[in-house]
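One thing: mind reviewing this one?
=====
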Amino acid sequence: MNTLRAGSNLVEGDSPVRANKRVLLVEDDRLISTLAVDLLEYRGLHVVGPAETLQVAKEMASNEEIDAAILDVNLGAETSFAAAAILRARGIPFFYTTALVNLSHPEIVRETSLAKPYGAKQFFDALERILAARDAA
């Protein structure tokens, strides 16, 4: 499995994610956010952020022009659920990433989620799913 970590093949398992979309990235782990930015930019996507705190995530979710978002559930002692509520109200699709062992939290179950560690293919498959669902709506 190709996981997001130093030395991984960033293009293995290419999926048909649309270029030129603006994607909000909310991630407090700098290594993961750096790798995610590299993945997104490699595919021709424009990264908004990364937002490392809930406050910044909420501001960006409220004010930025974005097509989709990727939200780490845990941001230090807080969760990204408040930013997700803003995105939901704006009709912007998103998915969660989490290292939580228990993925049964109602908010996580309600939305698309991706367990860490994840591979590039899983990352882009999740992004493609939420973008396709938005386009179909």
User: Anything to note?
Assistant: The chain is about 40% helix and 20% strand.
